[in-house]
Amino acid sequence: MSLxxxxxxxxxxxxxxTDISEVNLKSENFELTVRRGVHQASPEPVTVVSTPVSxxxxxxxxxxxxxxxxxxxxxxxxxxxxxxxxxxxLVEIYSPxxxxxxxxxxxxxxxxxxVGDRIRRGDTVCIIxxxxxMNEIEAEISGQVMEILVENGSPVEYGQPLMRINPD
Length: 168
Known about the structure:
- By secondary structure, the protein is α+β, with helices and mostly antiparallel strands.
- Among the domains are: 5-35, no CATH class; 91-167, CATH 2.40.50.100.
- The chain contains 2 helices and 10 strands, in the order H-E-E-H-E-E-E-E-E-E-E-E.
- The chain has helices at 5-16, 60-76; strands spanning 22-27, 30-35, 91-94, 99-102, 118-119, 124-130, 133-138, 143-148, 155-156, 161-167.
- A 4-stranded antiparallel sheet has the order 3-10-8-5, with no helix packed on it. Strands 7-6-4-9 form a 4-stranded antiparallel sheet. A two-stranded antiparallel ribbon has the order 1-2.
- The protein is elongated and about 50 Å long.
- The termini are far apart.
């Protein structure tokens, strides 16, 4: 079995429109596994092996201050509502497919949601275009939009966080 890039994109778009949660295609020199609806709270652990190097002891307090300042600066980017950076109760809306992210139903129209808007479960929050098909992405929870993580017209990957919601 051999698939070219366009056939893979078409297959992914077709799978995205079904209730199929996993597909595994395997041949002698090709393997493709697609899983939907699997969102990890944290990334897989990675082990890195390297040669030990002697490094002078850092000033931990100044490093922590730099990290905190950087996190606060990051929290101000992208039109976010002011919030505690460590607020872990936010829920992310993920891209269910590979495609192009659009905030509005058409060019020149108002976005589906803005930072600070209240949304309800089932509300359309964006569109992902895949293979010339416009796929409306609906909220799975009710709450307040705290962050929009993707620029309008940007490419997105399967499982990529699109927005963060403070649930009701």
